[in-house]
Design a protein that fits this description.
By secondary structure, this protein is of the alpha+beta class. It has helices at about 5-15, 25, 40-50, 95-110, 135-160, and strands at about 15-20, 25-35, 50-55, 60, 65-70, 70-75, 90-95, 110-120, 125-135. Helix content is about 35%, strand content about 35%. Its main location: cytoplasm.
Length: about 160
């Protein structure tokens, strides 16, 4: 019976290329999915150098397929005329049941698909895709206030543990 790799070994195989840091601030994350992505050779080489940005990226559903739009992968500097377009649309690879599930949820509610991170998993490029709902300004302020309060609590607990108060 094959032994399942532990979490530490699994994380060692994953190399994060890019993250969308504003996504958790601007959206409430409801569910996450791991999707493969269709790339050309120079895109993979550029990703191995860490040349990617998820800042304006989003995913859409077109004809039963999920496409990642506005993902910026810089041109490979050793590439020739075969280099790729930096902001081309890229197809995401998910199971049909997952796609149908996502399409139903997007149609029913005011939801969107947002990429959270782009990483290598066992040599293959993967995208962590989130089903998300946009936050309003008051929700963002409440999250900031809660985070500040939590930070202040942990700081005070640390001071008490050290005997400073």
């Amino acid at each position: 019976m094959a032994k399942k790799p532990d979490k530490a070994a699994e994380k060692a195989n994953n190399h994060v290329v890019a993250t969308n840091r504003k996504a958790r601030h601007n959206y409430t994350i409801l569910d996450t999915y791991e999707a493969g992505i269709v790339l050309v050779g120079t895109e993979v080489k550029s990703l191995r150098e860490g040349q990617a940005s998820l800042v304006d990226a989003f995913a859409t559903v077109d004809d039963g397929e999920i496409w990642l739009r506005n993902l910026h992968i810089a041109e490979y500097h050793h590439g020739s005329w075969t280099n790729h377009a930096p902001r081309r649309n890229r197809k995401l690879l998910l199971h049909r049941s997952q796609i149908d599930n996502l399409v139903g949820k997007i149609r029913d509610g005011n939801l969107t698909l947002v990429p959270l991170s782009l990483y290598f998993s066992d040599g293959k490029v993967k995208v962590e895709l989130a089903l998300a709902r946009g936050k309003e300004a008051r929700d963002k302020r409440q999250d900031l206030a809660k985070r500040d309060a939590d930070r202040e609590i942990t700081r005070e607990l640390g001071r008490r543990a050290k005997g400073m108060r």
